[in-house]
Amino acid sequence: MKNRMKRTFLRQILVLLTIATAALAAPTAYAEDEAPDVLIKRLLSDVMETIKNDKAIRAGDTAKVVALVDSRIMPNVNFQRMTASAVGPAWRQASPEQQKRLQEEFKILLVSAYAGALAQLKDQTVSTKPLKTAVEDKEVLVRAEIKGSGETIQLDYRLEKTPGQGAGWRIFNLKVMGVWLVETYRSQFAQEMNTKGVDGLIGTLSERNKTNGKKA
Fold first, then answer.
1. How far is CA 69 from the centre of its chain?
2. pLDDT by residue (tens digit) across 141-185?
3. Whose C-alpha in 19, 127, 133, 141 is 20 to 30 A from the C-alpha of 153?
């Protein structure tokens, strides 16, 4: 019974993490002008509507999820920073090729999670809490909520403001039900690297992704 409850809880966490990350699955034409909380609210609403109306995504169409992530989500995420934070201090010692492989395998791992989790989305609604920012702020914390048939779930986003052409707010971490995504993976990755090193972590992620691919 306890194991079944644990699996159910982990599936719920996965679904919520999927919604949270997929909040950035829309073009960022207004990202430079919008306040980060307004941006997140708009993107959350757009994505939830897209998911509800796309039967293929809800059914776990892996190819469609990959296309969605590549074309619409990843351009709005500082994925290098997210991967580097998840890997921890070992990232700085990794070669450029190892860093490239880590990003590739980490991305596939997350996409694999999307394929299964998106199918479980139903009638959740979203809202964000007002945010006060100063012009000089480079990083902010945006708080959102998801309401369904059960309890209200809090989502915390950490975003950074990017300079130059295409400037705007980009996500680099998120928290669901008190669990930060990057820190959760950092703990898992650290255990693997302590015994097998960076190449060992890459190999483990690659094998896990191959296994997930066979199940898709």
1. 10
2. 999 887 777 777 788 889 998 876 566 888 899 887 788 889 989
3. 133
Contacts of 109 (CB under 8 A, 6+ apart): 205, 208, 209, 212
Q: Are 24 and 76 in contact (CB under 8 A)?
A: yes
Sheet holding 125-128, edge to edge: 125-128, 139-147, 153-162, 168-176, 179-180
pLDDT digits (tens, 9 = 90+) for 109-128: 877 766 556 555 667 777 88
* Look-up of token digits 């990003």: 103
Q: DSSP H helical segments within 69-142, as ranges?
A: 79-87, 90-93, 96-117
Spell out the CATH class of 2-215: alpha beta
**Sequence-separated (6 or more) residues with CB below 8 Å from residue 47:** 19, 22, 23, 25, 26
Per the CB < 8 A criterion, the answer to whether 36 and 141 are in contact is no
Rg, C-alpha atoms of the chain: 17
